[in-house]
Amino acid sequence: MNYRTVLLIIFVILCAHTSFAQQPFTFVKTDEPVSLWKALAWDVLPGGGHMYTGHYEYAAVFAGLKISGVYAMYYYYNYWQYRGSLYRSAKKANEAIDPEHDLLFKDPEGGYKTVKEFGYAYDRAAHYFTLSILANAAIYITSWLCTWYHVQEINESRQPTYVGFNQFSFTTDENGTMWASCTMRW
Amino acid sequence: MSLNNKIIVLLLAIVLATGCLHEPVDEEYFDDLSKVKGGQKPTPPVNLSMSIDNHIITLQFETDTGATYDPDTGSNENLYYLVYISATDPAHFSDPKLYYDIRYYVGYVAETDFEGGDPKVVTIQISSSYHGPVYVWMTSHDGGRESDHTEVVNGDIP
To answer: Do A85 and B30 touch (CB under 8 A)?
Structure first.
């Protein structure tokens, strides 16, 4: 298990723990419809939209995913810059030390690499950063979809309802005529 | 878990998370021969000569004159000698790096492969279908870095 996995587990446990330790609360009165736009806006924060709709388990999971996702994006951005600096340094050194040969430079992550191989590692780091952005987008879209579904679910049970009844009555006058009446109340 | 412990765990997580980040290196990071495999580059063999007989090229060169050595070890015991061959004059190469290109590389012999002293002899069998000029040059290699090339010797295969 590498340190990235350990960090991910720490974040998920931490977020889950802090979320479950909270007293249950909601931002909306239970008798009012939930605003979809407010819920989606709150969901920009880790777990915010799910807290807004009162789904605390979802809040814990998405808070963990979002915090980890943002950290991964930050990490891979730094890693991309780092690999870029190694590539530029190796390229400059190769040109200065022996431009006619492809020198093998010691990679801080292990082994030796030529300038071209440092370039490949730089490209890979850029791909990791791109993937982390895509993963964050996927997490946010999934979270928004869940929030939207929960808001719909809540609002369905809070639609105003109308209670009505019909009353039929039959009366007979002195001439033997029968009258029927219908009263509808809402 | 008390609030203090929560804060400690959170701070620990932040420290761990930021501690794993990579800081970019400066441009002079690799301007250090200890970070280059092979350290300093060796010197090439000397007095390279060539003779051709019936599509067999015989190369003679010297490495024990004291001029061929690895500056990191002070000897030539760890050196390999690489042979390059071309049908065109390398003087017309567009890029000097082509002297060390894999497409002209034939093979290598190690210093330890030779039991006697100088001159050292290497033979190369050329396909009997080839007729024309041949240009040959050599380099030394210490397992990490390659030397400059020797002078280019040339001949004709009739």
So the answer is: no
